[in-house]
Amino acid sequence: LPISMGSAAALIKYLGVMSDPSNFGQYQLYQHDLSQYMKLDAAALRALNLMPGPRDGSKTMSLYGLLNHCKTPLGSRLLAQWLKQPLMSLQEIEKRQQLVEAFVMDTELRQTMQEEHLRSIPDLYRLAKKFQRKMANLEDVVRTYQVVIRLPGFIGTLEGVMDEQYQVPLESEYTAKLRELNNSLAKLAEMVETTVDLDALDRHEFIIKPEFDDSLRIIRQKLDKLKHDMDVEHRRAGKDLNQELDKKLFLENHRVHGYCFRLTRNEASCIRNKSTYQEISTQKNGVYF
Q1: pTM to 2 decimal places
Q2: Which listed residue, of 92, 153, 215, 250, carries a Cα 20 to 30 Å from 110's Cα?
């Protein structure tokens, strides 16, 4: 397969895979069985309008755009793969159709999966890549944990399917695999619950519990004092500007400016011509200062 090897070499060079030692020993090369898929060239893809083209205005101008109601990036990629690689085996086609039919016929299964479970699932493929490259941070660990604690919900929903003709294919394709994952990742969930301050997640902070280390405890005390001082300043500014706290004057952690005050745009005139207050930016939801 000289052409295949030449293409692989070009791809490896383009991706710069050899320049990062962490990639060594991470990959294996094997021949993929293409006989199970129908071969579609670019002309066939265009003629069949399978995927959106560069000039397509509406997303429903392609079959992919019409069918894509996926809630996760992983789902969208899988649907694209299914459309670009149509199956050739009748047995495999019927197996896939039966799985799709289970979600079409069982409205409760479909809606529960889409609205309750899949809506909050991150891009697991990209998340896994971060762990593989040892570039994952505490936020990535917590996001993985948030997926793990949702697995029992997935399993319970799939086990609740009453129609016998769909129970077996769903069990072999999804439920059994999810059960296995749930068991193997239980220790990860336990570790996160033991070490990470889950209450801080509501404030979008990803921190280790201060009880774990004396230095962390000192930092926590300093942070608590700073938060108390900010609350005092918030009340002082509210009194000075004669604005109601948390209705018109807000203390917020802005992603660019850090902790700052925000006034609704209607009330923002009260800080104009006052040198004690420094205006940072004006946005749709108000004026930051």
Answers
A1: 0.70
A2: 92
